[in-house]
Amino acid sequence: MKLIAWNCNMAFRKKAEFILAHNPDIAVISECENPEKLKFPANSKLPNDILWYGTNPHKGLGVFSYSDYRFQLLDCHNPNFKNILPIAVTGGKLDFILFAIWANNPEDKDGQYVTQVWKAINYYEDLIKETKTILIGDFNSNTIWDKPRREGNHTTVVNKLSDKNIFSTYHKYFNQIQGKEEHPTLYLYRHENKPYHLDYCFASNDFIEALETVQIGTYQDWTALSDHKPLIIIFNI
Question: What keywords are assigned to this protein (predicted)?
């Protein structure tokens, strides 16, 4: 099972071919236009299922199946957390819960980025299990920006998920330490000298045990398309 998370920097319809070249089963695309605007080129492979959420038709969170997997947004979805979507994934080799994430909610005065993830994983605590659980997308966060007196910083998110045996696939695969990542997923303003690691796939330990490869797109290959680079994960399932 191959998952790709990418903040496409809008206009996914014009960029989907570059993601499709990697043959994902599921793609989680931040800053994606709504389905009515997704007019893909005539020769494009079309998704078998789409789940989209957002208030701006040009810039929401899209989840695409290019396989047998099908999506259902769970009734427990709390719109206060906007683009953090609890999704039942069925129809493939394995049914599981997927949290598609684009952590960006300017209306929340407590914090629009990692605070959203912190609030969500506490709100959905009973849904986030030690098995068959994946949280993936643009978290807009990193340990380097931790505010020690704020309860919901990046480190507390990582630790709370770890308590449930849910871990970052990138950090497990490359044996990296949070905050000292060697592979950036964002180049601020597309400047090569401003690299950050903000995109993640956290997976329960059953998925971690089946982890085959993790790849992050390079600056050279993707900067013309977006400030973010895709995170590509393969599980041997």
Answer: Endonuclease, Hydrolase, Nuclease
